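Thread: quick sanity check before group meeting

JM: Hey all, I'm pulling together slides for Thursday and realized we never actually wrote out the predicted structure for the chain we discussed last week. Dropping the sequence here so it's in one place. If anyone has concerns about the input, flag it before I start.
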Amino acid sequence: MASAAGPLSRITRIAGPALLPAIAYGAYKGNAAGLIEAFFTGPGRTSRIIALVVVIVNWKSLPLAWTYRIFNGMISHLIVRPNHTYPPDKLFQPVKTETHVTLLEVDYNIHKSNSTYFADLDVSRTHLVGHLFAQGCRALNNNASTKLVPDPSDPSRAAKGAFNIILGGVQCSFKKELKPYQRYEMWSRILSWDRKWMYIVTHYVEKGAVKPGSKPEDWEKKIYASAISKYVFKVGRLTVHPAVLIGASGLLPERPGGWVKESGADKLPNGSANGHAEQNAAEPLAWDWKRTEEERRKGLEYAVHLASLDGLLNQFEPGEDGPLGRFGPG
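JM (edit): ok, ran it. Output follows.
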């Protein structure tokens, strides 16, 4: 049953958006079966079938396909199966999203256009955050009752406003080209967080290259691109510390002083070296707050470089006499 459900699910995801207009029109006319039969058997069927095949293999680039992909991720994790949970040692583990290069994503160099990587990132991040933090997202969305975020003017009351996840920035480093219709995987995981931002790292990897428990030889040759993104969480106009969301999802071990206070999130643990917590050989290997903090700080060494790009706005220069030229269409 499970093996049959997988292919059926993939067919539904791919063919669904392409066939939905035809199904809806047929239902409206009350003759869906006749419409479908005419589509595949009537005059001009060859050109229609070819057009349908082209649409199906390029469906992710069709109008509203991006919206469908995003809402598919949100609905799947936040509504259909919102109660899955993980222990703290899974916080930095990745999720995998598979896709392919469509014809409409190809540029004049006959490979995947750099700009299209960012649409794929939206989808991969949606699956990661929705899958890991479903419980936290629901709790913050119901902040009026959970009171995870208090009103600054009256901490006894819950902060007012809708819960939102906002993308604050993305940086992508391209390593190898992806060719038309080539399949690939996106591996996304939590990299780190600070008092404002949650940082997510995504690698574009050759399909099937990663096997459980091991890395392939010539690992760097299997990665097409690597990207880092940062999210900020809001309740109304208030910024929510990422640790609130992570903790509400059950993914943070208990820590003296908590994770939200400055003393808990920004000072190094006792017995640290070079910014990392040292593992005492006498201590058990259980995943405790020190190991979580160590992983957070390891990722933060990379994340701070993305955060520093916020200062680029100070480098805007309009020129002494304005721009050298004005061009269009843009």
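AS: nice. The longest strand covers residues 223-235. Strands lie at 95-100, 150-151, 154-158, 163-174, 183-193, 198-206, 223-235, 238-240, 272-273, 276-277.
JM: adding both to the slides.
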